[in-house]
Amino acid sequence: MSRTRxxxxxxxxxxxxxxxxxxxxxxxxIEGKAVFIDAALPGEExxxxxxxxxxxxxxxxxxxxxxxxxxxxEPGCQHYAICGGCSFQHVxxxxxxxxxxxxxxxxxxxxxxVVIPVLWEPLTGPHWGYRRKARMGVKYVAKKNRVLVGFRExxxxxxxxxxxxxxxxPAVGTKLVELGEMIEGLTIREKIPQIEVAVGDEQCILxxxxxxxxxAQDQDRMRSFAKANNLTICIQPKGPDxxxxxxxxxxxxxxxxxxxxxxEFLFRPAMxxxxxxxxxxxxxxxxxxTLQLTKADTVLDLFCGLGNFTLPIAKYAGQVVGIEGDxxxxxxxxxxxxxxxxxxxxxxxxxxxxxxxxxxxxxRKYNKIMLDPSRAGAAEVxxxxxxxxxxxxxxxxxxxxxLARDAGILVNDLGYRLVKAGVMDMxxxxxxxxxxxxxxx
Length: 441
Known about the structure:
This protein is an alpha/beta fold. The protein folds into three domains: about 15-70, CATH 2.40.50.140; about 100-125 and about 275-440, Vaccinia Virus protein VP39 (Rossmann fold), CATH 3.40.50; about 135-255, CATH 2.40.50.1070. The chain contains nine helices and 21 strands. The protein has helices spanning about 95-110, 170-175, 175-185, 215-230, 275-290, 310-315, 325-340, 385-390, 400-415, and strands at about 15, 20, 25-30, 35-40, 45-55, 55-65, 135-140, 145-150, 195-200, 205-210, 230-235, 245, 255-260, 265, 300, 320-325, 345-350, 370, 390-395, 415-425, 435-440. A seven-stranded mixed beta sheet has the order 17-16-15-18-19-21-20, sandwiched between helices. The chain has a six-stranded mixed beta sheet with strand order 1-5-6-4-3-2, with no helix packed on it. Strands 8-7-9-10-11-12 form a six-stranded mixed beta sheet. Strand 18 (about 370), helix 8 (about 385-390) and strand 19 form a beta-alpha-beta unit. The longest helix is centred in the first third of the chain and has 20 residues, at about 95-110. The chain is globular, with a radius of gyration of 24 Å. The chain starts with 12 loop residues before the first strand and ends with a strand. The model has no long low-confidence stretch (mean pLDDT about 95).
């Protein structure tokens, strides 16, 4: 079905912003049509240019702020106006948190038909240089005679021309130009579409996706750059499981620790880990403080990944069972349990969107359940809670709308009580909302 588009006016339009969308754009109405405007805040009067006009709505970008919100600040990145990686740099830090908290409450009321009785104090951490995992695009642009490394332009498919990225871990974020120059000198510079960034507590890994094998000279150039910048470069010929060291180099396995609980995680560069280590540590502590575990507890950890919550839970519970849909992650979770000397944690691979009634682990009873699903949420697996009958449920979410939907199921259909919920600032400077909720029988 074709989309109706109109020719864009060339002159700026003045408007008053009335509200925010879930992704942080200002909302106004022109001739009865909603217009979503990048970098605009409620209460502001702005001049904007249309970037797209469709039948039902339009989009725009601010070209001049006539009257600024008291919450507006100067963006901390010189590329903020063009790069699509961040959407909240023009908002002060406290207001970013408040916006996310307000969104969480609104989603619970509107989607889940549930009111949050108590708000957790938000978890906050560093606002810059925090991002330790990312997939950066790479593109050789002949007209610019440059290899671009970074993220896409706002609402565009091509890469932004970036010199640095202050939200990325500095060892990477301050080296985008040098990294591009290194790639520009490779024979396969036009055959590199992306770089997987994985920064551990002590290691910084760049896994370079290669559509053609690098020559020996290419590998020497990569090796020299890595050593000069205290990085490790790997190559990825195909899927994530093909990431390997440069010829003759030893494999470097990144790690991150939860020092308060005596746990160290090993992971591979393309595996999912939280991007913000400071918030992750606070988040794990909040989960443990909330569950108040004893050796009498049998805990089920759904969507467990490589055991980020499972292993610290195992330190204090009698038994914990972790379930994850990705078999390589399950294998790695088992390796991490061995690495940490944990013997009371079991891990199984299962698709939690499908029927799991024949799984032996699903036939057991669990008095406490922890879950941390993807953006799609956990609606399909919630029906099994009737059988498991947990007394307490802690739900960590990266999508407030699916958390709100699932909260509605737990409260309105399964008889649980929402005790409290709150936000965790996993992605400062962006509209991404990480949240947590506690339910009791």
